Amino acid sequence: MPAHADALPASAQLNKGSKRRKRILAFCVVAFLTWALPTFVAQWSKLNQKTAELQALQQQTEQLKQTNEQTKRDVARLNDKEYVEQKIRTELHWYKPGETVFPAKKPNP
Questions:
Q1: How far apart are the first and last CA of the chain?
Q2: Is residue 44, in this structure, part of any structural domain at all?
Q3: Domain count of the chain?
Q4: What are the angstrom distances between the C-alpha of 79 and each of 7, 68, 70, 72, 82?
Q5: Quick check: 41 and 49 in contact, CB under 8 A?
Q6: 25 is in which domain, residue-wise?
Q7: C-alpha triplet 60, 71, 93: angle, nearest 5°
Q8: Cβ within 8 Å of residue 83, ≥6 positions away
């Protein structure tokens, strides 16, 4: 053993080693937090961004489902001759021969 180690009492040597271990532990904790905090903040912001994207996509999915259901209803109605005739009259402005048409003007808003 070194000569200076014999000069200190045993309890002083233990306290010195204990203080050194506490400093090393504190340094390790600070180093870990220095790395972990920015990483956590970056991941938190990405999580918030992805959550917003998910909500937008879910809303878009709901709108597409409603459009799909409306299209399915329209396709089912195309088998009805009266509905097809009505669509032709309103959208294409076709009329039966000899039929008198009275066009209605739409009011200006």
A1: 102
A2: yes
A3: 1
A4: 106, 18, 15, 12, 9
A5: no
A6: 3-92
A7: 125
A8: 77
| Neighbouring residues of 78: CB distance < 8 A, sequence distance ≥ 6 | 84
Confirm if 95 and 101 have CB atoms less than 8 A apart: yes
Kindly report the pTM of this predicted structure.
0.49
Is residue 108 one of the residues assigned to a domain?
Answer: no
- Does residue 15 belong to any structural domain of this protein? yes
Q: Compute CA 33 distance to the chain's CA centroid, rounded to the nearest angstrom.
A: 28
Residue bearing tokens 């972990």: 36
- What pLDDT digit, counting tens, does each position of 23-81 carry? 999 999 999 999 999 999 999 999 999 999 999 999 999 999 999 999 999 889 888 88
> Is 98 a member of any domain?
no
Q: 13, 19, 16: which is closest to 1 by C-alpha?
A: 13
**Main-chain dihedrals φ then ψ at residue 54, nearest 5 degrees:** -65, -45
